[in-house]
Amino acid sequence: MMRTRPLKVALLGCGVVGSEVARIMTTHADDLAARIGAPVELAGVAVRRTGKVREGIDPALVTTDATALVKRGDIDVVVEVIGGIEPARTLITAAFEHGASVVSANKALLAQDGAALHAAAGEHGRDLYYEAAVAGAIPLIRPLRESLAGDKVNRVLGIVNGTTNFILDKMDSTGAGYQEALDEATALGYAEADPTADVEGFDAAAKAAILAGIAFHTRVRLDDVYREGMTEVTAADFRSAKEMGCTIKLLAICERSKDGTSVTARVHPAMIPLSHPLASVRGAYNAVFVESDAAGQLMFYGPGAGGSPTASAVLGDLVAVCRNRLNGTTGPGESAYADLTVSPMGEVVTRYHISLDVADKPGVLAQVATVFAEHGVSIDTVRQQGKDGEASLVVVTHRASDASLSGTVEALRKLDTVRGVASIMRVEGE
Amino acid sequence: MMRTRPLKVALLGCGVVGSEVARIMTTHADDLAARIGAPVELAGVAVRRTGKVREGIDPALVTTDATALVKRGDIDVVVEVIGGIEPARTLITAAFEHGASVVSANKALLAQDGAALHAAAGEHGRDLYYEAAVAGAIPLIRPLRESLAGDKVNRVLGIVNGTTNFILDKMDSTGAGYQEALDEATALGYAEADPTADVEGFDAAAKAAILAGIAFHTRVRLDDVYREGMTEVTAADFRSAKEMGCTIKLLAICERSKDGTSVTARVHPAMIPLSHPLASVRGAYNAVFVESDAAGQLMFYGPGAGGSPTASAVLGDLVAVCRNRLNGTTGPGESAYADLTVSPMGEVVTRYHISLDVADKPGVLAQVATVFAEHGVSIDTVRQQGKDGEASLVVVTHRASDASLSGTVEALRKLDTVRGVASIMRVEGE
């Protein structure tokens, strides 16, 4: 029953991921054809600069005119692995207009303009798939969108950025400071020359927006995601975490409120107990916990980045989109019917670990405790350490809203006896 | 764009899983309708005995005549959660003949007759989905069949039976023997009154057959799976495992041969290093590792059984099958094009931990080592312990074929100085 006319694929971008997609399309051509029900053919590869020799890719297929490629009219599927907002957005939109379905790995674009792109796909009866945009090779979008389609997801909690996990893991295991660990990550190729997108949490925030939208069947944009990077995490924070039986991870957390009417999405460093499965996620690996009503706790773990793993996800989507194409149908589109409110960070409820530098004299603890009480933040434990007239107070709270905690901290800063707030870290996963 | 005519669902079986499916279909009706694009209606529930009050289910829907229900002709989807070979097989076949798609949680049937059932589904242009048949709520069939459709899977290794994992975890943490741990599992409802299917590995073997078939795009039947239960695992085995920095798990292992032309599937207890993520899978949880060319190592973790988790998987499939139905299409069917040989256990290559009771006199080790050498099995480490004229020898081998190891053990038994072979355990996950 094999159809002989091949499905034509245009590849936009031929970097680390794109070249791997092209390679697998060639070396695994027979398997892909058998699984799809028709051969797939690489019909064109758009790059920024020609001239570079690309092993295994016919030079005649390579072009710098991506626009002409997506508008050719005979392209069945456009694979976009350029990244960034433009020209990717314009090219994807043009692809739909010219009859192609799209497979993308572009988290930034999906997080910012997912709704518009889904609408364009729907208008033209085409597919938009993007498993590779979140957590590399780990199947996550499809399980959330399809496997859990009959369940109610309440929480998604995970490590979705390999670069920062590598750095934090290094700080944890060696006692190194942030800069030292970052330097090692850069030297080993885990961090880019400009690591801002990773270490400031922009990358993880884009993934959180995508995951929250799919998990809760509502629209969550990048701007809705509270974001705090991990550049200020110190070796001292790791020592504090260890004293609590915790480590520190940069987490993406998407939660449904208790009453079910609103959701929150956030990215920030947090202490998690060593007994939590996410605590043992090492190096550049990713792992995501999903909690739902019926399924309970699920975890998905694997390599979150890299050419081959990302290509695996892209090709899985390519097979699905090609099958849909042959069947004259499309897969599930955007599901945003629930239309829930995205609440601000102030409404998030969690626990906090606060280190204060205080004067080493009687009555300080009473003053500090009073401030917490006045803001309705209940204290779980306090630890005092004094030396040479200076002292530190480490307070771990019970669950409180982020707004109450912020109010508490603001008031603490005004106390004469509080010299400074050394660190504030959320405590998750308990 | 909501279609108003509801899709009609017939539920076969209303036990722990079925009643939960019915409950969620009722309580989450609006969500399911929004996600599918049409309402779904419970059109009938087939049970063995009527009379029992089933909370939330209209008694008028309940029937003991499952055959009449699937043959009604207006049923869009049959959900089969009866289990066992018959009458499930006849009912599912009749469902296809009368125009329904099928969602099943029946691992035994799928492992035995999957090919015939897929053929029947294909002949009538209907879907056969069965995510719930393997590892409960954990999305595994869909990720293997769809997310990794562009990749080449080389190995699937996992804990796919919660009952035995509960028992082994208990033995590991308390030092209890098998019977004591089984009694506790039975008392807590983790083991059935007749635990044979679980403890003898039949349940895990059925799942291994299903996983191997999907992972390698070939047919693997239950009879192709080597199976060894865990009833002979002793407290002494756990002590030996601990000395090696290992624990013992009942594993399902499906592997592609190095040259890619054949596969093996097996279920047996094995030692795995404590550092392996599967070692920390506690209680009745399941977890499955998947290794593929491009994606690398992925892990899927979650509750492997129970009414709610299994219902979550069933409902995910129900949503997918209903969407396909509305689109007038079907999802991916059986993919067995690779048509690989399933090799016997003798060809499996792994490491072994062998405990021998030997005479405590000079020359025994030399004799034993000679037997290993004669069979081409290379020894990694040997540990001797002597007491009162008796001694034990613990041998850990390098990688060797199961046939070579069996030959070795047979020859060892014939040595006068070997009083007995106390245990043979495979060592995996290194």
TrEMBL record, chains A, B:
Its cofactor is a metal cation. Pathway: Amino-acid biosynthesis; L-methionine biosynthesis via de novo pathway; L-homoserine from L-aspartate: step 3/3; Amino-acid biosynthesis; L-threonine biosynthesis; L-threonine from L-aspartate: step 3/5. The keyword Lipid metabolism does not apply. Residues 353-426 form the ACT domain. It catalyses: L-homoserine + NAD(+) = L-aspartate 4-semialdehyde + NADH + H(+); L-homoserine + NADP(+) = L-aspartate 4-semialdehyde + NADPH + H(+). It is an enzyme of class 1 (oxidoreductase). Its EC number is 1.1.1.3. Keywords: Amino-acid biosynthesis, Methionine biosynthesis, NADP, Oxidoreductase, Sodium, Threonine biosynthesis. It comes from the Bacteria. It holds the Pfam family NAD_binding_3. NCBIfam families: PRK06349.1. This is Homoserine dehydrogenase. It comes from Streptomyces musisoli.
